[in-house]
Amino acid sequence: MKFHFSVFIFLGGVALISTPNAFAGVSRPEMRQRVDTEINELVRIAKAAPAVDAATLASLPAPVRRYLAYTGADRAPVARFSRFRFIGEVRLPISGTARGVTQATPWMPTQGEQYMALSAEGLGYVWDSTWQQGPDVSIDVRDLYTRGDTHIWAVRSDGRVLVDERHDDINRTYMIRFFAEATQSPTMLLPGRNLQWEAVDERRARAKVRDGALTASMVCDFTDEGALTRCESDDRLLRFTGDVAQRWIPARWVMKRGDYKSFGTLRVPTTMSVVWQLPDGEFEQVRSTTQALDFDVPEPYRSNSSAATPR
After folding, report:
1. C-alpha span between 21 and 188 (Å, rounded)
2. What distance lies between CA 243 and its chain's CA centroid?
3. What is the pLDDT of residues 250-276, one digit of tens each?
4. Where are the domains of the chain?
């Protein structure tokens, strides 16, 4: 079932207009051209052979087998390219230390698109979004991870570059994010050269992930029915935006997923929250809802292709 009407989302006092087939990503021309090129590179990566091995399902930990059966990933074609649209809100830590966040921005409404590719050629994603800082101020934000390299980029509507950063220390943080986001494309969580699962107990399993020399892990929780509801990792870093002694700090990252719905033959979660656990308390950073999701439609949404909405 497809929806062709606009939905007005009121978050933080600012209205966002969201339509499954409307433009949702960065709008600045100098960013848009580059982001489109990056998405096209993911399309190229997705043309290679799959990088997962569906033949090893029987040897997986019991919680993971339940998850793959619950989502339909154990019998669906393996997706090498996925795209989805989301709305939500985000806030950023401004100041603090490794003990905790002492100051943060207000919640900012956000909407955007994400593109992911996983094949024998490599893995990567483009997170293509717009944040609303106030009635007249927006921020175009693009996160890129591909082949072990990360670039984060944010430009405000007045032209001020807020972030333009890449360095080796953050690559593992953004590599593991690929597999966290792959909960939106569950066949990408089949075992293969980039991901191996090991048992923790009857309701938890550890995902050991790698991309080239980068390695990390996250422990995921599953219900008795098979829904993945939570993943956590100590292998990610939290970034402060203000004038601080240490820009990136180690913190336990916790992602919660819920409200599973069907997109085509697969069942995936449509809500997400991200919380960072620090010694002095938790800091919630992201809340989002998936509006549209497609598997192996290797083109941007703005190419006028239809977007699959949940049923």
Report:
1. 25
2. 27
3. 999 999 999 999 999 999 999 999 999
4. 23-303
